[in-house]
Structure formats: C-alpha cells, structure tokens
C-alpha cells in the first residue's frame, strides 16, 4: 500500500461548489504539506502543518483552507471553487529532524477541474 | 523570496547519451537542494538530496552537484535510457522561520528515445 494517499484522484466540479481533498499517510510523519501544480509553474505551497496544532499558510493560501484532523490526516478545502483553481494538487509529508536531511514524500496527486 | 529556475524546459535525447539538467536559485541561504522525478499520473519521487555543506551526491547513474556561492545545481544522468523519460524538478529547502519549506523550479521534461 502507498505511504501517502490522496482522495479523490480526479474531480470535476462547478464554480461555487465546496470541495474537499483528503490526504492520509502511514509514514508516521508529523509534517504535512499541500501543493498545487500548474503547467509550466512547478509546485507552489498552499498550506503546511508541522504537527496537529500547527498550521501555516504557504505562498498561495487565498481561497483555500485546511484541517489537520490527526497526525495521519490533512484535508484541503476550497470553500467556493473557481476556474483558476483548476490544477493538480499534491499532498506531501516529511519527518521532523535536521533540516539538512529533510526530504518530502508525495502522494499521487488529485486532478481538480473547476468548470 | 527564493526563486528557482530550471533550464532547459524540455530536452529530447537519444538513448545512451549523457545529459545535464540545470537548476539555479536566487537565495544561497538554503539547507538543502533536492531533485525529484515526476511521472505522468504519479506523485514526485525523491532522487537526490544535497545538504548545504555538501558539493555532490550520487545514486547509480545520477549525480547531483551543488554550488551555493553561484546559486546553481546540476543533475547529471549517465547513459540515459528510455525509462529515464519523466519531468525532473529541483527544489530548494529554506531554513529559519521558513524551515522545511521547499521552493520548486518549473521542471525539465526529459524524453529519451530509443
């Protein structure tokens, strides 16, 4: 089984709808992240959480919210989806420790289309 | 604000060639520089991580170098194979109050044809 799972894998929705993307991990990592990827732009950080009680905005948090329900679960919500939120969304985890050796482990991604 | 740039955006080579992918970053105060591989429909897979105190890392046919003073990293792939076809992303890891956050380049799409 995959260490980092995302549901759903694909979603098509309409403008104005509320959408939740879910991420679960079995790696036992404290840190979790949400990114979005747009063609030609690489990945950009939306939100990140260093533990259940610590949630921080990334560089593009407007229009998004998150919930860290447990160490293993980190959800991303779009309260009122708009077409420019059409993108590939990735969840990632990392383990606490020295920053010099800290790598991230990614889920398979959720392709979201907002019509 | 850290900015990461990758050149070229796309690269097509015949099987067997050695190739170099380039990554540059604007803020040299990084904790590490990471290279990832992305396959269609899949997430990112970590290839190599170079700590800020290191100059290079090797894994099989892959070698990544880091020059903090010039803000550059390169990924060298030896004897390329069709299975190496993927998008390669580099990411700079921040420290201080931005600890653990990665800033990604836009990626290089590599195609290795038989």
Oligomer: heterodimer
**Tally of helical segments of chain A:** 0
Tally the beta strands of chain A: 11
The major β-sheet of chain B equals:
6 strands, mixed
Radius of gyration of chain B: 14 Å
Note the gap between the termini of chain B. Answer: 41 Å
Order of helices and strands of chain A: EEEEEEEEEEE
How much strand of chain A?
Answer: over 45%
Dominant shape of chain A: globular
Condensed summary:
The complex is a heterodimer of chains A (115) and B (114). With 115 residues, chain A is mainly β.
Question: Can you give a write-up of this model?
Answer:
The complex is a heterodimer of chains A (115) and B (114). Chain A is mostly beta strands. Chain A has no helices and eleven strands. In chain A, a hairpin with a 5-residue loop joins β4 and β5 (43-51). The mean pLDDT of chain A is 92. In chain B, 0% of the residues lie in helices and 59% in strands. Chain B has strands at residues 4-7, 10-14, 19-25, 30-38, 44-51, 56-59, 62-67, 72-77, 86-94, 102-104, 108-113. In chain B, the strands form two sheets. In chain B, strands 2, 4, 5, 9, 10 and 11 form a six-stranded mixed β-sheet that branches. Chain B starts with a strand and ends with a strand. The mean pLDDT of chain B is 92. Chain A binds chain B through residues 4, 31, 35, 40-45, 48, 50, 58, 90, 92, 94, 99-109, and chain B through 4, 6, 9, 31-32, 34, 36, 41-46, 49, 51-53, 89, 91, 93, 95, 99-102, 104-107.
